[in-house]
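Module 6 notes. Inverse folding takes a fixed backbone as the condition and produces residue identities as the prediction. Think of it as a translation problem where the source language is geometry and the target language is the twenty amino acids. Below is one complete input and output pair. Work through it position by position during the lab.
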């Protein structure tokens, strides 16, 4: 049975928009996954990084996925490697970052995967595109609307970069 999953793409190296487009194309091609919505692309200031880094482009994806969370994680890591991502450090610039934000109502705490994403509720660059594609989404742990975690102060570093018409596919 398929689960609704929410992903976040991010890039701050090279042609960032092209990197997001290519990652989305590769994600659409994954076995057992059907993309059902994508957010606009947002320009975001780097948060909690080492030194000066270029701004990120971020985009959220909603999809239906038929396999296990770790299988999705491995598929996303493979896409990152194929695209040339080398650094796995949390504070490093990256050509592409593919994060699993939510996987249905599941709560997972394993060495390589934590769902819901452990910093989701602190990051406007993830919350804003997520709420765009799923305005009434509830966080599976807190049971509060995800939108309630967005504050005007926190979203100061997040700006619409590129809107698009076909969000719900």
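Target side of the pair, the amino acids:
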């Amino acid at each position: 049975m398929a689960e609704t999953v929410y992903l976040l793409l991010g890039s701050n190296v090279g042609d960032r928009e092209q990197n997001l487009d290519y990652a989305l194309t590769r994600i659409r091609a994954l076995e057992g996954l059907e993309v059902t919505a994508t957010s606009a692309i947002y320009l975001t200031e780097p948060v909690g990084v080492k030194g000066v880094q270029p701004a990120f482009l971020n985009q959220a994806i909603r999809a239906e996925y038929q396999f296990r969370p770790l299988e999705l994680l491995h598929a996303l890591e493979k896409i990152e490697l194929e695209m040339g991502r080398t650094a796995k450090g949390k504070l490093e610039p990256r050509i592409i970052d593919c994060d699993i934000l939510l996987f249905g109502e599941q709560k997972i705490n394993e060495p390589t995967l934590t769902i819901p994403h452990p910093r989701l509720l602190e990051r406007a660059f993830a919350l804003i595109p997520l709420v765009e594609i799923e305005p009434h989404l509830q966080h599976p742990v807190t049971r509060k609307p995800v939108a309630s975690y967005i504050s005007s102060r926190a979203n100061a570093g997040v700006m619409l970069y590129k809107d698009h018409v076909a969000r719900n596919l």
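Reference fact for the lab report: The two ends are 20 Å apart (CA to CA).
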